[in-house]
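Subject: for your reference before the review

Hello V.,

The reviewers asked for a structural picture of the protein, and I figured it would be easier to keep everything in one thread rather than splitting it across files. Below is the amino acid sequence we used in the manuscript, unchanged from the supplementary table.
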Amino acid sequence: MKCPYCNKEMEKGYIYKTDLFHNLKWCPEKNEGHIFVNTKRDVRLTYDGQVTAYRCEDCKKIIIDENTLKA
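And here is what came back from the structure prediction:
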């Protein structure tokens, strides 16, 4: 998939719940099906159960800017 901002190829991955507190993480598809294995490339998406995301109604894409995530 091409990035709508820079037109470069985007990497496919997964968003999943990490624990009982409903924290979400993104993990690259190249983890060979082991999406629950933590890697240095995993990105924590939320610490409080909510993350800001932008959705295009027309193309049905959701974009999350990692720069807006809480540390």
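For the response letter, the relevant points are probably these. Residues 13-68 form one domain. DSSP finds no helices and five strands in the chain.

Happy to draft the paragraph if you're swamped.

O.
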